[in-house]
Amino acid sequence: MKQVVVILVNYAGTEESYGLLGPQVAATIIQDNTDYECVVVAVGHDADKDTVKKNVIQLAGSNRPIIGFSNLGGRSELWTLAEELKAEGAITILGGPQANVDYLGEVGWESHHHRFPGVSDSFTFALHGPVEQLVPFLNSQGKEEPDAIPGALFIRSGKRRANERNDWEEDFLTRVDWGNLYRPGPSGPEPVSVTSAQVVQQIGCPYAARKVKVSLDYPANLRGSPFLRKGKVSLILQGCSFCDVARDKGFGGALSLESVLAQINNLPEDADGRKIPFELINEAPLSTLPGLLLAVREQGTRLSQLNLVSRADWLVMGEEKLRDALKLAKVMGVCILLSAAGFESFSDTILGNLNKGYPLRTNLAAIKLVRQLKEEFPENWSYSTADGASHGFIHPTPWDSAETEREMNSVIFAYGLGRDILPLKSVPLIIHHACGLGDWVRELEMREGITLERAASIIEWW
């Protein structure tokens, strides 16, 4: 009987049935290239830790378990679980976004003890970059030392070390097994039938491809109180100041059309024989969207729904290509859902401090466009919250003031954003210790002689 590698993944809730590409393709690569089977277990925020642990042990069997943790989202209870399993003899591996920076800890934590110290105690080692770097380690039955693993982060002689990682290889991204997702159950792991998935077309964000020097404002409020000092903090940023993956992935470029089509063909089908809805992972999807739909149509693949994520400026700049894509979607009977547009704020002051790279008028132009397209393509274009979209709206932020509140409220009222654009709940600004705003906080702490609390990997400014 084959041994089983278990990958635990952070999910919103235990009943979710969407599939995340990263852990599913990782499991597929392990199954295809090693002597191990590999299953993915979706751990919701409401999951019972003891049940999860019992399920993991049941899956991994009596041999020394190998357990991966991915996309932890700052959930300290998962780090605690990893530490317990490691202490009981399991090999625990941290992978996915921010694996390197969360393993190593916050900049300067050794001399500033309020900062996040990292999670190296919870894991045998971490892995930065593609999972195929693990194949020789797994084929050695876990006996190969981390020193020999590309992308590995580990401890040697009391010091944290990091090996240079390999680049992404397109050939490993074309096949994904969507049938090995489970959720924890009281009697054992329960299979999840994936109803929506992801297809990768582009790795990383072009906006984050270059470094720029910017000046961010001092906070208007901190810890819920007015912050009386004024000034600017100069930083070198890649992408939006709050983005916690731009530094991790950078911009890796686009996959070939053939590879994207292979992923689409590999998706499960619904009861009508159409491919299940999927998110196209591409931060700038519009320029290539008509060509992709045309290729799908020519090979006879039937789609149900394609979900897009886009910045507001790229929506406006890509209007012509988007119209071309919608004309094809109408012929093909496909719905295109703008599942998330990165509006983030409706205040020029806050957009500047988030380093979005465009002003409020760009957000408003994008909103005008998506509403107009709904009138022109009512059956094939969706964008509103009622259609399942969840657009970026970050509030509160450290730069909120009476002036920004008046500005945003007037825009929200004048443009009727509450009826189709705003989510039911805004998302407070989350400052991961390794994002650009982490540098902003540390500079403020040094200048002003203050310390902000850390909630695991997150800096608490509120």
Write up what this structure looks like.
The structure is a single chain. Helix 8 packs parallel to helix 10. The chain has 2 domains: 4-191, 3-Layer(aba) Sandwich (Rossmann fold), CATH 3.40.50; 197-459, TIM Barrel, CATH 3.20.20. Helix content is 30%, strand content 21%. The strands form 6 sheets. It has a 9-stranded mixed sheet with strand order 7-6-5-4-3-1-2-8-9, sandwiched between helices. The protein has a 5-stranded parallel sheet with strand order 10-17-18-19-20. A 3-stranded antiparallel sheet has the order 21-23-22, covered by helices on one side. It contains 14 helices and 23 strands. The mean pLDDT is 94. It has helices spanning 21-33, 49-60, 76-87, 99-104, 135-139, 246-249, 257-265, 289-298, 312-317, 319-332, 348-353, 360-376, 402-414, 436-448, and strands at residues 4-11, 37-44, 66-70, 91-95, 125-127, 152-156, 159-162, 181-183, 190-191, 197-200, 202-204, 211-217, 221-222, 225-226, 232-238, 251-254, 278-281, 305-310, 335-341, 381-382, 431-432, 454-455, 458-459. The protein has 462 residues and is of the alpha/beta class. The radius of gyration is 23 Å and the shape is globular. The longest helix has 17 residues, at 360-376. Strand 6 and strand 7 (159-162) form a beta hairpin.
